[in-house]
From TrEMBL:
Any matching Pfam family: ACR_tran
Molecular functions per Gene Ontology: xenobiotic transmembrane transporter activity
InterPro entries (alphabetical): AcrB_DN_DC_subdom (IPR027463), Acrflvin-R (IPR001036)
Protein's name in the database: AcrB/AcrD/AcrF family protein
Amino acid sequence: MGSSTVDVTLTALDDETRAAASDAVLDALTGLGGVRAATSDLAATAPSLEISVRGTDASALGLSVTDAVGLIALNTADFPVGSVAIDGADLSVYIDSGQSVATVEDVENLDLGGLPLSAIADVERVNVAPSISTVNAVRTVTISATPVNSDDVGSVGDEVRAAMEGLDLPDGVTWEIGGVTADVDEAFRQLALAMAAAVLLIYVVLVWLFKSLLQPAILMMSIPFAATGAILALWVTGTPVGLPSLVGMLMLIGIVVTNAIVLIDLVNQYRLRGLDLDEALLRGGQNRVRPIIMTAAATIMAMIPPALGLSGQSSFVSGPMAVAVIGGLVASTLITLIIVPVLYRMIEGWKQRRGFQDPASARAESESPRRAAVAS
């Protein structure tokens, strides 16, 4: 990410309004609990000399303002006139006025071809910003808030946004949140798209494998429960919801659906062998409960060290991700073993009562008489 601060960029047409708005925002952000320090780039100034040409005096001497500025520039800085090639090397050529400048008085007494600079210009010592930022040719000022906890930038960004929305700024001032908050928001949007794409692709593949629209929907029901478990685990442990935890939730999508597939696929196989719906669910649950629990337990055990911060310098990334995975697996395992079979029984039972059959049920019924005939 390009920044470690939450930045507020203010835009105003005049310097006074911009400075007043900067002071108000600076005071508001400094008082926030999640902010360690707040700074404004208006405070970052450097001492400079400002030379202002007096047009009337310059005209009286036959000089335009442009001519006067050029003459001053020629006598206060080395002036490039071209380059020469010496011993195969290109060297730049500059004209040096030969006048040394060490004090403000030296600048005022610069010889501009027979007259001192003070004859046509005023010299003033000023403090100016080291750089000037603009948006659509309008000058801006940026207030940067440094979070107390660098891992909790998201909540600090929300805190800053709430403070800005409740702030009464001068008329004509506009603001926007930038810095690391803007980076995180963009990353969140991209990760949300990745999650949506993952869910859609998994559903399409399951529809193709199960030859049914409803059974894959039942399997996908474990995903929101896994997300709920992950968020609850993050809340209980006081872990902020950030990119690492969202990556953990993205991992959960594949893990929890796999557990549900393991169960429902076996139930469908039992139904193909001629077992009725309830018997197939009962035997499927009995035979799959141990593999599902063992898979979840093994994954949870692997995630405990990073969740406890035992993974060294990578803990700030692996810790939230591990907490999310552990919480999601605990919740999704219970859902897979309880809610998914219940939903499967409700939907498949309703289809049987209404006379609807998906391809799996149709094959089960068509093969059941043949199995009975072979057995006899």
